[in-house]
Amino acid sequence: MCRREDRRKSIHWSRCGKNSFYRQGSSRRSKPLHKRNPVLIAAFVGAIIGALAIRFVRHPQPNQDWLVVASILGWMLFALYWSLSATNAPAKDAESRASRRVHEVLINAGYLVLLAPIGFSPAIPLLQYRFVPVSLIPKILGLAVQAGSFALAVWARRTLGQNWSGRIEIKTDHQLVRSGPYRVLRHPIYSAVFGMLTGTALTIGKVHALLAIAIVGVAYWRKIRMEEVKLREAFGAGYEDYRRSTWALIPGFF
User: Fold this and answer.
1) What is the pTM of this model?
2) What is d(CA 61, CA 48) in angstroms, rounded to the nearest whole number?
3) Domain spans of the chain?
4) pLDDT at position 82, please?
């Protein structure tokens, strides 16, 4: 059978073809992250700040390494903003929890590879190899790229409004947004994430940052493919016209 009924949650799971990653007819709402566990978010942010402070106070680093700390704090601010701005409009078609978990594992693995080697020397020396020479210029350039990409992410997030969701969803009153950065890019938030990763990679200047970009790239390549299938199903010819007139991530390139 293509469908079975979960009597406890009254959810029909589709097991057929392309819909195997989605559940349909879900009206259950969950509270945004910042309403569920604000203490956990604050503790997480505080723990990272405390760990960085202890490391750099006990083991003073060259002045340029404080620019790396600034880049890390930029990611923390990004995560905090994203949690506080989360919305939860009802969805009529949503990605399954299992599929969402795959994305989360890949994204978190990428961030771990990006940030963990800064405080701990990895067992693989190649990850600490520098692809950018030690210089103030690429670090400042990296912070500028990261800040600009952060601004793009906020602009895109505010433009989407209630249409935004962390997982792939088609909202009950979903609209095809074509204003703001969406006039040029179909996925400007993902473009912004890659921009922030690139900025941090320039600031850190080591191979593990490039590996992190590759891991996150796999996550978003997978998500973009799935997301565009659902948008094409939801908006039909209108989305095809939009797709032909825009770029996915990078204008003039991809």
Assistant:
1) 0.76
2) 18
3) 63-83+93-170+177-244
4) 87
